[in-house]
Amino acid sequence: xxxxxxxxxxxxxxxxxxxxxxxxxxxxxxxxxxxxxxxxxxxxxxxxxxxxxxxxxxxxxxxxxxxxxxxxxxxxxxxxxxxxxxxxxxxxxxxxxxxxxxxxxxxxxxxxxxxxxxxxxxxxxxxxxxxxxxxxxxxxxxxxxxxxxxxxxxxxxxxxxxxxxxxxxxxxxxxxxxxxxxxxxxxxxxxxxxxxxxxxxxxxxxxxxxxxxxxxxxxxxxxxxxxxxxxxxxxxxxxxxxxxxxxxxxxxxxxxxxxxxxxxxxxxxxxxxxxxxxxxxxxxxxxxxxxxxxxxxxxxxxxxxxxxxxxxxxxxxxxxxxxxxxxxxxxxxxxxxxxxxxxxxx
Length: 346
Fold this sequence. Notes:
The protein has 5 helices and 39 strands. The longest helix has 14 residues, at 328-341.
């Protein structure tokens, strides 16, 4: 439940009060197409706005592009320049994930005697916290989470079910890691002998996840061979992402699903990737780079900008390449005919 007065009192730069009683309240947010009585709605079209007004929706957050009616006692109106920003402001009030796990330590959890668990932390069923591990204030470990020896989990961090934090790895504050993700799996390091036998190079480094990072489901972030693999603060990783050993991803990056980065590569700050992007080993991508979906980076990118393709090119050149591909067969036939008429040998 949230009241119009509370929204008004937020003084958010993204939400502006327009008119209507601030005494009205909404029990939950719903999309306009499935709106129920008593719900709050974010509205982007005039037709949805007009319909919800006729249904006497108590609180409406409307795009500033829409025309609002005169003041009514049945609806409180707010406007926003960005519906997405307004949602990011208000939906946390309805997000109950931190309450999914009961307070305290569940009786089935196994906590090592040398582990340090803050009194405000929540430890769910069948969790394991290893020797010397540390769990910060208001951190939440959902069912079956494993935090191995000497690992650190910061305050207000939320670990979803079946997350594994490997030994000596460090997770910052206000981090969220989704189910079946492993932090600190061994890096892929082997050396081959003359008999083509492969011998493992022990991976004895760690992973450092800085503050306010979110990591999606079924991701794998490998520990470094000797030092650290690092994910910068504010970076968001989608599902099915693999970060290999010794890699560094900068601050405030947006990494989408199916992203793979090979060992010892680095990405700067504020980078954005499309789906299924791959980065080869020992490559550096500078800050403020955008990579189109299915791009493959095989050499350093030293200038900020937008890139796409395989091998990766600037967006302008990449679009030209894509446009040319359907004509390659015809062009080859034409070139062969020209060579034949000119009596040119292969």
